[in-house]
Amino acid sequence: MKSARIAAGIFLALTLSCTTLSCVYSPLPSTPTQAYSPKPQSTPSPAPAGDYKQFYLGLVKTPQGVEGGNGCYDDAGKFVVLINNKTAADPTYSQLVAFLQQDRTDQFPYLLQINPNAVYFDKPENLVDVKRMQNIIDGLAQPDPPLICADFAERLHNDAELAGIRAGYVTIDFEGQAIGHALAVFNTTDLGLVYIDDTGVDKVVPALNVTQNSSAPSISSNDKVAYVTIGKAYGLITLENAPDFGTNYSGYENWLSSQKDLDALEDKFKDLQTQIAPINKQIDDLGAQYAVLKAQYDSITGGRSTLPRNLYDQAKPVMDQMNDINDQRNALIDTVNGLFSQMNTLAGQYNALVKKMGPTWESLGTVFDFYVTWDGDWQN
Predict the structure, then answer these.
(1) Three-state secondary-structure class, residue 186
(2) If phi over 0 gives left and psi between -120 and 50 gives alpha, with beta otherwise, what is residue 349?
(3) CA atoms of 20 and 28, how far apart (whole Å)
(4) pLDDT at residue 204, rounded to an integer
(5) Which of 28, 150, 229, 324 is most buried, with most CB under 10 Å away?
(6) Are 166 and 160 in contact (CB under 8 A)?
(7) What three-state secondary structure class fits 236?
(8) % helix / strand / coil in the chain, to the nearest 5?
(9) Strands of the sheet with 51-52, listed across from one edge
(10) Beta partners for 25?
(11) In angstroms, rounded to a whole number, what is the distance separating the alpha carbons of residues 67 and 369?
(12) Cβ distance 270 to 3 under 8 Å?
């Protein structure tokens, strides 16, 4: 990006076992290491029931293992635990936007957090603090603030389900990276799948104008529509601006095209600035020459408006040079004013495009694979 864009801060979180950013418990070895007690031989006790009122719990079990986080909901097992609502329904896009605008998940700071490693010998469901989950559902307890992307996706999913909106949980692997990402997904009834990413530090493109002192647009939300396609760059557009481009991947490609247009406008703007600088110097030089001649003229005339013939003959050549310099200077000023007018036009086009595009987040990488779960899995 040639202009001062804001790139999303990509905070890397070490995970519980890890090939992805979101924490994953790796499969157990057949023989426990010496650091831990031997695996119990007795039959594992049944896991607590995951059903509660109209809600049911689910763990995110990906091909890599069980998704872990920082224990924002489950401070015992530190798994990502999905709260699912049997009465939840798919929203329209406008209903989704209305929900996201009042939801506060995106307002939490996105921080680096290292998760402790853990080894377990029983069902992961046995490690979940189900009573705490029930208290959260009943509003008697609050989840801890999210820190890494897995936490943000977990909280957004659960807030949506508690509000009666069906949501899914997504994990992403990037090409050539050991660190992945997590986000939420919604199956809108009018626009289909819409991925939502609430993480990241926003960065805005500053407004461009001739005086270079206009303020950049303010950002009140980190809600972003994410664009996820295998083999292509992971894309983000702020929620308010995404409808202008579309919510499928071609919409993000349109956004990228607008970004190129933005760079081209900025290049033209800077080219005009480059042209103006030497012209301004010429104007200043001519002004200095004019001042020298004016001093000579004043010395000859003594400030008199009527001169005798001999003084007039001395003053006229000086006055002619002054008039010639003044004509040159005025012509250059007209040129600069014309360039400024072009710059103002470009600034207007640039700022209008900035407003349409919204803030800019750099891509986290090329999507290698992704996994979507709508309810998770819970085995009693």
Answers:
(1) strand
(2) alpha
(3) 18
(4) 52
(5) 150
(6) yes
(7) strand
(8) 40, 15, 45
(9) 51-52, 55-59, 81-85
(10) 66
(11) 16
(12) no
